[in-house]
Amino acid sequence: MSAAEILEGSARGVLLLCDHASSAVPADIDLGIDPALLDNHIAIDIGAAAVTRALAARLGCPAILATVSRLVIDLHREPDHIGLIPHRSDGHPIPGNETVDRAGRIARFHAPYHRVLRDHVRAQRPRLILSIHSFTPCLEHGGTDRPWQVGVLYNRDVRAAHPTVAFFREHGFVTGDNEPYSGRLLNATLNRHAEGQGIPSVAIEIRNDLIRDDAGVAEWAAVLAALAGHLLR
C-alpha cells in the first residue's frame, strides 16, 4: 500500500492536501475494534476526501490524499506526538495499538507520506497550500456542540488565514478562527511543508454533517474554489 494518492493537475498555483482522507486499515494490522468504527469520525475525516477531489477537479490542481486511517497512524501529527498512534479516540479504546511497533509503523506510513509531500512541494513550489479536513458536530464523550460551519486553522503565518476567515464571514458562514481547535497546537503537516517552506497556507475544517452527501460536497467545492481564487488574487 502506497502511503499517498497523488491527483495530478496542470494548474500549479495551488496544492491540496488531505491527511485524513481514508479509513483503510491494512490486512495485516488488527486494531481490535468494531469495524463499524471505521465509518466514524475517529477513523476518517468524513467528506474531506470527496471535497478534495471535487475541488482539485474544479481548479485543475494537484492533490495529495492519505491512504491509511488515522487510527493506524495519524499523519497529521509529529512523529513524537503522543497521539500519533492512538490508544483511545473520542472514548473508544484501540487495543490493537497498545503494543505496536511505533518505529516500524512510522517507517511504513508516516515517513513515506511526508516524503511524497516534501518532494511535491519542492518540485512544484505552489503559491498556496490548502489542507482539507472535517470535524464532527459534537464529540461523543465530553463534547459540546460545535456551531461553526467551517473552521480556519493556522499557526504563525497568517497571510492566507486571516483573509480566509474574512472571506467565509463575508459570505455568511459561521466561521471558527482557530476553532474547533487551534492550529497553534495541531498544525503538523502545514508547519512542516508550508510554513516551514515559506509558502502561504491554511487548513480548512468543514463540519462533516455539511459534506456527507454529493450536494454538500459540490457546494463546498464551489465555495473553496472561489476562496482559492480570492487568495491567489
UniProtKB/TrEMBL annotation:
<dbReference type="Pfam" id="PF05013">
    <property type="entry name" value="FGase"/>
</dbReference>
<dbReference type="InterPro" id="IPR011227">
    <property type="entry name" value="UCP029730"/>
</dbReference>
<dbReference type="GO" id="GO:0016787">
    <property type="term" value="F:hydrolase activity"/>
</dbReference>
<protein>
    <submittedName>
        <fullName>Putative N-formylglutamate amidohydrolase</fullName>
    </submittedName>
</protein>
<keyword id="KW-0378">Hydrolase</keyword>
<dbReference type="InterPro" id="IPR007709">
    <property type="entry name" value="N-FG_amidohydro"/>
</dbReference>
